[in-house]
Protein backbone atom coordinates (compact mmCIF):
# COMPACT_ATOMS: atom_id res chain seq x y z
CA UNK A 1 0.00 0.00 0.00
CA UNK A 2 1.18 3.50 -0.78
CA UNK A 3 -0.20 6.85 0.22
CA UNK A 4 0.48 10.17 -1.43
CA UNK A 5 -1.03 13.59 -1.80
CA UNK A 6 -1.65 13.92 -5.55
CA UNK A 7 -3.80 11.27 -7.27
CA UNK A 8 -2.54 9.37 -10.30
CA UNK A 9 -6.19 8.79 -11.30
CA UNK A 10 -8.87 11.38 -10.58
CA UNK A 11 -11.94 12.72 -12.35
CA UNK A 12 -12.16 15.67 -10.00
CA UNK A 13 -12.90 18.98 -11.66
CA UNK A 14 -10.59 20.67 -9.16
CA UNK A 15 -7.59 18.36 -9.68
CA UNK A 16 -7.27 15.67 -12.34
CA UNK A 17 -4.95 12.68 -12.38
CA UNK A 18 -1.20 12.67 -12.96
CA UNK A 19 -0.08 10.27 -15.71
CA UNK A 20 3.60 10.50 -14.72
CA UNK A 21 2.77 9.43 -11.18
CA UNK A 22 0.53 6.64 -12.56
CA UNK A 23 3.53 5.37 -14.55
CA UNK A 24 5.77 5.31 -11.46
CA UNK A 25 3.16 3.35 -9.51
CA UNK A 26 2.66 0.96 -12.45
CA UNK A 27 6.42 0.27 -12.40
CA UNK A 28 6.33 -0.34 -8.65
CA UNK A 29 3.45 -2.80 -9.15
CA UNK A 30 5.46 -4.61 -11.86
CA UNK A 31 8.32 -5.16 -9.43
CA UNK A 32 6.14 -6.06 -6.41
CA UNK A 33 3.08 -8.20 -7.17
CA UNK A 34 1.64 -7.83 -3.66
CA UNK A 35 1.43 -4.04 -4.09
CA UNK A 36 -2.27 -3.49 -4.76
CA UNK A 37 -3.52 -0.22 -3.19
CA UNK A 38 -2.74 3.47 -3.56
CA UNK A 39 -4.45 6.10 -1.41
CA UNK A 40 -4.36 9.77 -2.33
CA UNK A 41 -6.20 13.01 -1.72
CA UNK A 42 -5.63 16.53 -3.10
CA UNK A 43 -8.86 16.42 -5.12
CA UNK A 44 -11.76 16.85 -2.72
CA UNK A 45 -14.15 14.00 -3.53
CA UNK A 46 -14.18 10.20 -3.19
CA UNK A 47 -13.35 7.93 -6.09
CA UNK A 48 -12.32 4.29 -6.57
CA UNK A 49 -10.67 2.88 -9.67
CA UNK A 50 -11.17 -0.44 -11.44
CA UNK A 51 -7.86 -2.32 -11.00
CA UNK A 52 -8.46 -4.14 -14.30
CA UNK A 53 -8.08 -0.74 -15.99
CA UNK A 54 -5.41 0.77 -13.71
CA UNK A 55 -2.57 -1.75 -13.99
CA UNK A 56 -3.82 -4.06 -11.23
CA UNK A 57 -3.93 -1.32 -8.59
CA UNK A 58 -6.91 0.01 -6.68
CA UNK A 59 -6.57 3.79 -6.59
CA UNK A 60 -8.60 5.70 -4.02
CA UNK A 61 -9.05 9.46 -4.02
CA UNK A 62 -10.22 10.25 -0.50
CA UNK A 63 -9.78 13.98 0.01
CA UNK A 64 -13.18 14.16 1.67
CA UNK A 65 -12.55 16.74 4.37
CA UNK A 66 -10.60 19.83 5.27
CA UNK A 67 -11.92 22.00 2.45
CA UNK A 68 -14.95 22.42 0.26
CA UNK A 69 -15.72 19.66 -2.21
CA UNK A 70 -14.00 20.14 -5.54
CA UNK A 71 -16.60 18.75 -7.89
CA UNK A 72 -16.42 16.03 -10.52
CA UNK A 73 -15.87 16.16 -14.25
CA UNK A 74 -19.12 15.84 -16.18
CA UNK A 75 -18.20 12.43 -17.63
CA UNK A 76 -17.20 9.50 -15.44
CA UNK A 77 -14.13 7.78 -16.95
CA UNK A 78 -14.31 4.05 -17.68
CA UNK A 79 -11.63 3.30 -15.04
CA UNK A 80 -13.76 4.95 -12.31
CA UNK A 81 -15.99 2.39 -10.56
CA UNK A 82 -17.51 4.70 -7.95
CA UNK A 83 -17.30 8.41 -7.22
CA UNK A 84 -19.18 10.91 -5.09
CA UNK A 85 -18.79 14.63 -4.47
CA UNK A 86 -19.55 14.59 -0.74
CA UNK A 87 -17.63 14.63 2.54
CA UNK A 88 -16.58 11.12 3.56
CA UNK A 89 -13.87 9.14 5.31
CA UNK A 90 -12.29 5.77 4.67
CA UNK A 91 -12.18 2.93 7.20
CA UNK A 92 -9.65 0.13 6.53
CA UNK A 93 -9.46 -3.30 8.14
CA UNK A 94 -6.12 -4.95 7.34
CA UNK A 95 -5.21 -8.57 8.09
CA UNK A 96 -2.39 -10.81 6.89
CA UNK A 97 -4.37 -11.79 3.78
CA UNK A 98 -6.92 -9.05 3.09
CA UNK A 99 -7.58 -5.35 3.02
CA UNK A 100 -11.24 -4.52 3.57
CA UNK A 101 -12.35 -0.94 3.06
CA UNK A 102 -15.46 1.07 3.76
CA UNK A 103 -16.10 4.61 2.56
CA UNK A 104 -18.38 6.27 5.11
CA UNK A 105 -20.63 9.23 4.30
CA UNK A 106 -19.75 12.39 6.18
CA UNK A 107 -21.85 15.43 7.04
CA UNK A 108 -23.70 17.49 4.45
CA UNK A 109 -22.33 20.81 3.31
CA UNK A 110 -18.92 22.00 2.13
CA UNK A 111 -20.12 22.35 -1.46
CA UNK A 112 -21.26 18.74 -1.87
CA UNK A 113 -23.35 18.16 -4.98
CA UNK A 114 -24.17 14.51 -4.19
CA UNK A 115 -26.14 13.24 -1.21
CA UNK A 116 -25.83 10.33 1.20
CA UNK A 117 -26.90 9.59 4.76
CA UNK A 118 -24.26 10.59 7.30
CA UNK A 119 -22.62 7.48 8.78
CA UNK A 120 -23.85 5.18 5.99
CA UNK A 121 -21.36 3.04 4.10
CA UNK A 122 -21.36 4.38 0.57
CA UNK A 123 -18.73 2.09 -0.96
CA UNK A 124 -17.04 -1.11 0.13
CA UNK A 125 -14.35 -3.24 -1.46
CA UNK A 126 -11.64 -5.74 -0.56
CA UNK A 127 -8.28 -6.91 -1.83
CA UNK A 128 -7.14 -10.49 -1.31
CA UNK A 129 -3.50 -11.51 -1.02
CA UNK A 130 -2.06 -12.98 -4.26
CA UNK A 131 -2.20 -16.75 -4.57
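^ C-alpha coordinates above, recovered residues below v
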Amino acid sequence: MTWGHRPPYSSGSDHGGDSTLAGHLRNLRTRHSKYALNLSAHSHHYERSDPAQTDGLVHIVGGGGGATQGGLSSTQPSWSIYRINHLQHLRLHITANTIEAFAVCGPAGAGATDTCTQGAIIDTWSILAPG
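Helices lie at 19-31.
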